[in-house]
Amino acid sequence: MEAAGPMTDEELAAIEELVDATTPGPWYVRDLDDEYAMCLVAVGTTPATGRGERRPHFDHHEIVAATLVQQPRYADVADGRWDENALFIAEARQHVPRLIAEVRRLRRLLAEARHDHAERGDAEIP
User: Fold this and answer.
1) Packing angle, helices 82-120 and 9-20, rounded to 10
2) Which of 5, 22, 70, 80 has the greatest number of CB atoms lying within 10 Å of its CB?
3) pLDDT tens string 13-50
């Protein structure tokens, strides 16, 4: 979606619906390993242990997304930013709901300020 002007309430609601439809957070970056995924960089619902577990020592049901699966190369972005992409995905699960709430809070404050200015007959707030 290309930004063309201020975000509408409908667009904000659509983003919130997308968030609400996902696996509940928080999400974490996981560095895992096994004979099939080899150096798997994933996003999961449980924190990393730092041990690079191999299956069956991690539950595949905890994995939300993978940004690197090397054997065979199923997921391997050309720019090599699999760690950065995994961190973004994991952090977005926590931050997007907060951003939505902040946009709504700021809109509410702006509406209140406009109302107050209008009641006092002050110049309109853009």
Assistant:
1) 140
2) 70
3) 999 999 999 999 999 999 887 776 678 889 999 998 88
